[in-house]
């Protein structure tokens, strides 16, 4: 038995698996190209990159695969418009926008004939997105890693959103196995988006200590922080999150106005970059709640094969 394909606008992936965009510099060309090459949708996270860096990542991914490569950019970043235009110019197959809502991006994508896929957390925003021309929506439940737009689990949010729009709906949050994929597809989703599971792969650009934190994570390590973006964020507990909990004021050393609106509680860009550079105690390690079910750091091709076999077994078919 074959997994269903995923079609979004004029783009089709062989497998209904989208690798979540992960900033800063966690999902770059090595991860996105490996996922695309294995049949899924590989996503380069544009937030926090210089426009030229994003262009180089897209070119590097293209040089490695003919598969589907998307770019994810957070609406909340100041460079949103510039980064979307670079992604369009460099031939991204899809644009995915999270952490905020932008009307303009629908126009830019329509003019470029590129499918636009917003990340939504409510029926209202899903319907609004469809009206503005979204080719699909990604529904992120509260279990997801990174910034959260809802306090509702994907299990209850997903069916309501599927019933409220007529475009493909992709479920995200807590998906780490083929059984999880089956559950989400059975609920009526056209595909899944998986973040944390792909952050803990060989091709992810997270440092080894960051990946190992997922493997070691226990229930009590999964925490929520309040991000200066104005949204809660799900992360792994470390000395930095404990400092935030203590309420101690964080000094912002060098503000480069990376966000359109910033709560200034701490510098999110600095903390995400620190973690990506290996300081997993002083930086911020975003993580989904399902990190507790991740026990290894496989290559993307091994992981994708495993996900397909698990899905086939769960679906009553023979393992590949
Ligand atoms: C380390 C990390 C960084 C993330 N960065 C982004 C981001 O830049 N933009 C975005 O829209 N979502 C981001 N996310 C969310 C993922 O794209 C994905 O939707 C989410 O991780 C799904 O939940 P899961 O981790 O349970 O699979 C991030 C998640 C993680 C774990």
Describe the secondary structure blueprint for this structure:
Elements: E1 6-8, E2 11-13, E3 17-19, H1 29-37, E4 41-45, H2 51-64, E5 68-74, H3 80-89, E6 94-98, H4 104-112, E7 116-120, H5 123-132, E8 137-140, E9 146-147, H6 154-164, E10 169-172, H7 178-186, E11 191-194, H8 196-199, H9 208-216, E12 222-226, E13 232-236, H10 239-246, H11 268-276, H12 300-314
Parallel strand pairs: 3-11, 4-5, 5-6, 6-7, 7-8, 8-10, 10-11
Antiparallel strand pairs: 1-2, 9-13, 12-13
The chain binds flavin mononucleotide.
Flavin mononucleotide is lined by residues 20-23, 26, 45, 47, 72, 74, 98-99, 119, 140, 143-146, 172-175, 193-197, 199, 286-288, 290.
